[in-house]
TrEMBL record:
Domain of life: Bacteria
Pfam families per the UniProt record, alphabetical: AHSA1
InterPro entries per the UniProt record, alphabetical: ASHA1/2-like_C, START-like_dom_sf
Coiled coil regions, renumbered to chain: none
Family recorded in the similarity comment: Belongs to the AHA1 family.
Signal peptide: none
UniProt protein name: Activator of Hsp90 ATPase homolog 1-like protein
Domain Activator of Hsp90 ATPase homologue 1/2-like C-terminal: 5-115
């Protein structure tokens, strides 16, 4: 998967818009056959502690519409940082197991990137 950041204003009230495109088109994209585009805003930013975003997929499919709240909480852990990701308001058209798998893969890649440094 590759991403394209269209807008990213990291301040409370700042806008965000991102497209995620699957390398192998699966026909399961939410905006097009192989792309998920979402937009939203930062609701709360607490340095080194928490990020809260409200986002929504750009789609005509009513099963995939609606605002979602993403809350990332960071806490000190032995030799690093623990990240707790809570995703609320998942549209009924997104299977929770698929969403969880996506989050786990993303967090594993983030850990690998951070730990490599």
């Amino acid at each position: 998967m590759t991403s394209h950041v269209h807008a990213f204003d990291p301040r409370e009230g700042g806008l965000i818009r991102i497209s995620l495109t699957y390398d192998m088109p699966t026909g399961t994209g939410k905006t097009t056959a192989h792309t998920d585009t979402y937009h939203g805003r930062f609701v709360k930013l607490v340095k080194d502690e928490q990020v809260v975003e409200v986002v929504e997929f750009e789609t005509e499919d009513p099963a995939l519409r609606g605002e979602m709240t993403l809350t990332l909480t960071l806490t000190d852990a032995d030799g690093g940082t623990e990240v707790l990701a809570v995703h609320e308001g998942l549209p009924r058209g997104v299977p929770p197991a698929d969403n969880e798998t996506g989050w786990r893969l993303s967090l594993a890649r983030l850990a690998a990137l951070v730990e490599a440094r």
